[in-house]
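Journal club side-thread
Mid-discussion, someone asked how the predicted structure for our own chain would compare to the paper's figures. Pasting it here so we can look after the session.
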Amino acid sequence: MIRRERRQNRVTPFGDIVATAGRGLFMGNRGVLHDAHRRVVRLSQVRRWITCRLEFRGRRRPIMTPGSYTELFFLDEAAALAAGHRPCAECRHADYTRFRDAWAVVHGGGRPTADAMDATLHAERLTAPRTKRTYLARLSALPDGAYVDIDGAAWLVWAGALHRWSAAGYVQRRRGPRGVVIVLTPPSTVAVIAAGYRPHVHSSAGAEIQKSHHVEWPP
């Protein structure tokens, strides 16, 4: 039997790039992260961390083409946002516009440029090259779609409960602790979600998700 090699291209809500089965519902990139042998050798190359559709205008290309951007995959958009990504302005233009409009509501000053948002998110993602920046907030103040860290695991805030992330889907549901929690989703993104941007969330977090969010392509 031929064993298929797993590429290191799945992204966790902590922003780590890991090798595991499955693609998830979204793709994205952070520039060229792999070498000529398709090994990931850096966490990021650019400030522009984006989240893309899996399919767009019939475009196809080999994964990890030498010298080109590294394809990264996310369970869902909420996980991508927690990792520090934002919607792509090309393949997800409508979502990008919604995200940018909500950003303008939060920060004022009119619609921001992609570079301006990327500069802010870049400062909020990491405290060191491979160390995620987190912060404390009251769980009751966080909107649906934010992620928190509880005992080293990533949990999605959604529909009055917490849902534990796994690469294959959400595997546990629980009530959240009272008081202050460690937040994974960057503060500017949390504010954008609170201002009305509703991220797409994997259906394993509950059947009510598909009723409340229009899905543009089959999950």
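Post-session note: The chain has one domain: 8-212.
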